[in-house]
Design brief:
By secondary structure, the chain is α/β, with parallel strands linked by helices. Helices cover 27% and strands 28% of the residues. It has helices at residues 15-26, 52-59, 74-78, 97-100, 123-129, 165-188, 221-230, 286-296, and strands spanning 7-12, 30-35, 40-42, 47-49, 64-65, 85-89, 107-111, 119-120, 134-141, 151-158, 203-204, 237-241, 244-254, 262-265, 269-277, 283-285. Helix 1 (15-26) packs across helix 6 (165-188) and helix 5 runs antiparallel to helix 7 (221-230).
Length: 297
């Protein structure tokens, strides 16, 4: 077992990162510092928003590093009294080789896909929208090239074609966190070796706001339903019903068009909207929306 006194420098930003940080901390590992993206501002008042990882670090008296350029932490790492282990989960920035080389045995990354499939920033959304039968988690050695490092371990997860992106994020975050807690000692002492990824990598791209609007004439009902589940966090799927813009949160494939919320799609398929967010920002059932829409006509 790796000595718990061995320092971990944790790179991460969002809730997906937080799951691993929490499990490492609860397992007794020493978190020397967390490296997280600079604070952002959001909302009408442009209030400063801390990352989930920063909130955890504040509550547990852990050193916080928020560099604008990752290399700004290099002197901090060099001045530690031992070569630390790096763990990176959904940090949001490319780590240069000069920083990676300060860690022993490098920086360990959790990526939510079965690499080399879905290198990039949206593997969870891609697996759902493509109707994949399985996905999983890869524990890999970080390299400057995106998601191209050698792999220590992969854990497969069977998909049911019903998962939403928040559900799959939560499940894969837990799998990845539990796995790295188990195998980190073997990585640290060199008994677990990483293997090169197989050829023929595929890539997934950063999602854009424009992808939220569904063109039902160009996609089947099955494709639309998958997009609704895949895009629940961002960019959220939108359409216009009789002049009213809505965000679709839940739908199912149907056979008829009985209401304005039963939409004809490509290949003579139909999508029925079950739940949505109205222009008011309120989430409601299809029935409640139709009743309210009739009242406004």
């Amino acid at each position: 077992m790796m000595k718990k006194s061995k320092t971990i420098i944790f790179f991460g930003t969002d809730n997906f990162s937080l799951t691993t940080l929490t499990k490492l901390f609860e397992a007794g590992y020493v978190i020397g510092a967390v490296v997280t993206k600079p604070d952002s501002k959001s909302g009408r008042g442009q209030k400063t928003k801390f990352s989930a990882v920063k909130e955890f670090a504040i509550n547990h008296n852990i050193q916080i590093l928020q560099p604008n350029k990752v290399t700004e932490i290099n002197d901090y790492i060099k001045n530690l009294n031992q070569s630390p282990i790096g763990v990176l989960v959904s940090y949001g920035k490319i780590i240069p080789e000069s920083t990676i080389n300060l860690f022993s045995p490098g920086i360990i990354n959790i990526h939510p896909s079965l690499l080399p499939k879905y290198r990039g920033s949206t593997p969870i959304e891609s697996a759902i929208k493509n109707g994949d039968l399985e996905t999983g988690v890869s524990i890999m050695k970080l390299t400057p090239e995106m998601d191209a490092g050698d792999v220590y371990s992969q854990i497969k997860y069977r998909l049911s074609d019903t998962e939403t992106s928040p559900e799959l994020y939560e499940k894969l975050a837990d799998i990845g966190a539990s796995t790295i807690v188990d195998i980190l000692p073997d990585i640290a002492d060199g008994s677990l070796k990483a293997a090169p990824q197989v050829p023929n990598a595929t890539y997934c791209k950063l999602l854009q706001k424009e992808e939220a609007w569904l063109n039902f004439q160009e996609i089947t009902a099955q494709q639309a339903e998958r997009l609704i589940r895949a895009y629940q966090v961002f960019p959220k799927t939108k359409t216009n019903i009789k002049g009213v813009d809505i965000i679709i949160t839940k739908a199912h494939i149907s056979t008829d068009s009985l209401t304005p919320l039963d939409i004809a799609c490509k290949q003579n398929s139909h999508l029925s909207i079950d739940e949505l967010i109205a222009p008011s920002g309120r989430k409601m059932s299809a029935k409640d929306f139709l009743n309210g829409y009739k009242l406004s006509c």
